[in-house]
Design goal:
heterodimer; A: 298 residues; alpha/beta; 4-stranded mixed sheet; elongated; B: 217 residues; alpha+beta; 8-stranded antiparallel sheet; 9 strands; 23% strand
Amino acid sequence: MRAYINKNYIHIITIILGINLITFLFAYQNLLVAKQDSNDRIAHAQETLICPTDTTAQKTLQLLSCYINTPTPTVPVSPTPTVTPAPTSQPKITPSPTVDTSCKPQSSDYLTIKQALSDKFKINLTGDQSAVWASEAYTTMCQLNKSSMFMSLLTSQGPVTVNFSGIDCANVSGHADMNAGITISGMCDPALNRAVLVHEFGHMIAFRNPAIFNNFLSTIWPATIPTFNCMIHNLEGVTAPECFADAVGEYLVYMNYRIAFSGQPPGNTNFAEYPTTYANYYNFIKTNLFGGITYTTF
Amino acid sequence: MKKNVLKNKYFILIILLIIIAIPWLFFTLLSSNNSKPPVTINKTPIPTSMINLPKSHPQIKARLDHIKPGSATDKDVIRLLGTPNNTKNVEGHEIMTYSLPSTNRENNIYLNNGTVEYIFEEIPEDNAFYNQYLNKGNLSKPETVLYDNYSGAGFNWQVFYTEGVAFLANPVNGYTIKIIYFKPMDYNTFISTTAKTFSLSTDKKDDREKFSPKKID
């Protein structure tokens, strides 16, 4: 009897194990089919819903079905844009040079200076043939030329036309146009003249290098500096493009001149506190436009 | 003797049944978990203008793409974007503000009586969106160009009012810094509503910056 039970017991065990094996195989097949089905649903959902690839985005998108469907989502890579975006400039840190006393034109003749501006700095001078103004423009360009980053941002896409007219000291003004270049009216002391020219160059750099201006909007704006075109600007109020351009204009002259008009905004005649009190602005210009080159004397 | 044998049989049977049940239950549960249908979200259809837009800044674009001006509600916005960082009421609009990470910028959702009217999107990353939109879309140029104070940095509003989108972009290289999404409309309606809301002008101001001599003390 015992032998009979033992013998049957073995058969029963064998049958049971066989059933287990079949059950296992059946369930595993179901598992594979279900996984494929789930992936198909995810793929369909992702036709209309983009699942981000970076982990930071993944953490912030827990509401989306990308993450409800699967605990570890497989995400498609967004197709690479076919149009090359505007190039970004890489900060190039170069040591501040010693004071350069040779930043004066070799000639006092307007046409000679004009030619030198074109040959050396890609600046095309038009308008009134003022040797005084041309000489000051040359000196300013010579200073700016100490920063290869600045010169590249300004002129790598082509020369800049600068039209100069008038000698009225009380009404010095400037304007920049993406296509036509810069127009400057009036002239006064050298610090003011330099501030005007470099401010307008700031606009040209924004036109030609939109990534830098966009970076300014993201990291500096809406902070302001106490200069006329940033704070007031023809009663339009505070505007980002003018704050950017004023910040560039002040970078070479802050120790001597604070951009103002008719005493507005009120403050010191110079902007000596620029590098410290407004360090965010100063350092942004220093890093992203001048590659670390600084100007501590006029 | 017979009783003992019977008792053992039942005992063995129970054990064997347990042995069968455990793996069966295990694999059945595992397959049912994975075959669970995905949770469906009632998504508002993506407007044609947005389908053509290149995808960028993924964590923002992916969510904004599902908010349709004119039909999405404040509840849809919160469901997709979460609780806003700030809300305010300005000239008849409730504005829900969402800060962009690692920037000083924020996207704004404008609502009118609980319905999304405008999406004002900031684009902090490098791009050529405007040119890509032109390349993919049905129009070869904007339907109109408007201006605000960003013209001073070379950016103008390239408007496609029948498509419901406007790009604040550099027209030369297509670099875009802001986008407004709105319900498609005609020109006059756009000028009297959307342009007015965002202070967009048909006049390109030819203003000049002013400088005056420093005071001599």
